[in-house]
Design brief:
This protein is mainly alpha-helical. It has one domain. It has three helices and two strands. The mean pLDDT is 90. It comes from Bradyrhizobium quebecense.
Length: 59
């Protein structure tokens, strides 16, 4: 899965709350992601204004 597809799914998840959990994000990402790809994904999340949170219970 490429970064654009991951971001599209992350946007869908974050549409109502503006956040995505690390568990949800891990579920979208292949295990074979390179460190540069992970850094690009985090940068894209920041650019989109999507906040990453540790769990569903975090506020």
């Amino acid at each position: 899965m490429d970064l654009q597809k991951i971001m599209a799914k992350a946007r869908d998840i974050a549409r109502t709350t503006g956040t995505i959990t690390t568990e949800q994000l891990n579920g979208l990402c292949p295990n074979s992601m390179e460190p540069d790809d992970i850094a690009a994904l985090f940068a894209a999340l920041r650019t989109e204004g999507i906040q990453l949170k540790d769990s569903d219970s975090e506020k």
